[in-house]
């Protein structure tokens, strides 16, 4: 491959946190090198991979690519935060090794952030792809481009996490801190909420700019398979709302957040009952009740009534 000179002061840092990513790391890097934007660096932060990841990355003769090898495995969230610490660009993209950028992503996101200094982060709709890179579906978060005020953004995020890739100003992380490892699976969602709560505008682009890969080793999929997805979201939800003043109007959005997992948790509970797994039933019922109390029984009653009606109709 032809050698490309590095930029000592890149505008954009595209950070790839990776652990054992030999199956997808090359495709990920190529998606960055194919960008219409050329003012960027690529940081590959390897979290002690034991496969061929580093050998694949070392084949690139491109000075824009910098490889950092951690001395020990610091966990997924720890590696994301190390990316932020080492990034030199004014704007940061955190791109997991199994995901892809579409060719106009960096230029599109950059133009949005440069258009308004008050915009802290920007994201877009996206494609879901499978292990082979085939597009399986299109996720359209909203019907039109928009620049949301901080209040509008938090209200939107309270419904769930619509984001799979952002470009964020590096100074934002300096102001509000890095990803919270205690939030686990939803540490990204907690970060976007935190950015909005800190008073920053958030921009959304209707045209897809990235691809999110769903495969057998995908972290989210593994949490779902272990039936701990709802528990992780609920933990993150409590963390987010605990940072908001008790009498803030934002607290009224708790039922909106609870709806994200309320129906699926009810299903988990009834499914455990159906198969007679009473240990699982107690666990799922306990979580369901905690979600209900946290969001407010009165506020969740219409949803609960509908779930009960559907269950009765199903069996009788």
Structure, explained:
- The protein has 316 residues and is an alpha/beta fold.
- The protein folds into two domains: 12-215, Spore Coat Polysaccharide Biosynthesis Protein SpsA, Chain A, CATH 3.90.550; 227-315, no CATH class.
- It has twelve helices and ten strands.
- Strands 1, 2, 3, 4, 5, 6, 7, 8, 9 and 10 form a ten-stranded mixed beta sheet that branches.
- Helix 7 packs parallel to helix 9.
- The chain is globular.
- The termini are far apart.
- The model is unreliable at 222-226 (pLDDT under 50).
Short overview:
By secondary structure, the chain is an alpha/beta fold. 45% of the residues lie in helices and 19% in strands. Residues 222-226 have low confidence and may be disordered.
Total domains = 2
H/E element order:
EHEHEHEEHEEEHEHHEHHHHH
Q: State the low-pLDDT regions, or none.
A: 222-226
- The helix content, as a percent range, equals 40-55%
| Silhouette | globular
User: How many strands, what sense, and barrel or not for the largest sheet?
Assistant: 10 strands, mixed
**Gyration radius from CA atoms, angstroms:** 21 Å
């Amino acid at each position: 491959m032809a050698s490309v000179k590095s930029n000592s002061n890149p505008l954009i840092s595209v950070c790839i946190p990776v652990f054992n990513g030999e199956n997808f790391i090359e495709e990920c890097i190529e998606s960055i090198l194919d960008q219409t934007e050329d003012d960027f660096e690529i940081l590959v932060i390897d979290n002690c991979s034991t496969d061929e990841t580093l050998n694949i990355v070392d084949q690139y003769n491109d000075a824009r690519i910098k490889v950092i090898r951690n001395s020990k495995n610091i966990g997924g969230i720890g590696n994301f935060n190390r990316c932020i610490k080492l990034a030199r660009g004014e704007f940061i993209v955190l791109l997991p090794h199994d995901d892809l950028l579409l060719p106009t992503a960096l230029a599109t996101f950059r133009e949005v952030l440069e258009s308004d200094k008050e915009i802290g982060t920007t994201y877009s709709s996206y494609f879901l792809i499978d292990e082979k890179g085939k597009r399986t579906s299109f996720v359209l978060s909203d019907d039109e481009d928009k620049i949301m005020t901080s209040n509008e953004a938090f209200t939107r995020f309270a419904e769930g996490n619509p984001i799979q890739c952002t470009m964020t100003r590096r100074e934002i992380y300096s102001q509000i801190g890095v990803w919270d490892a205690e939030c686990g699976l939803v540490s990204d969602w907690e970060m976007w909420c935190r950015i909005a709560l800190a008073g920053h505008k958030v921009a959304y682009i209707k045209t897809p700019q990235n691809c999110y890969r769903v495969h057998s080793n995908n972290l989210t999929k593994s949490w779902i398979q272990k039936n701990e997805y709802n528990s992780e979201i609920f933990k993150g939800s409590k963390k987010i709302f605990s940072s908001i003043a008790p009498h803030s109007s934002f607290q009224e959005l708790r039922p909106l957040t609870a709806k994200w997992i309320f129906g699926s948790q009810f299903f988990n509970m009834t499914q455990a009952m159906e198969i007679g797994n009473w240990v699982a039933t107690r666990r799922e019922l306990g979580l369901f009740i905690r979600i209900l109390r946290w969001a407010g029984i009165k506020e969740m009653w219409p949803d609960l009534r509908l779930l009960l009606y559907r269950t009765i109709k199903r069996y009788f």
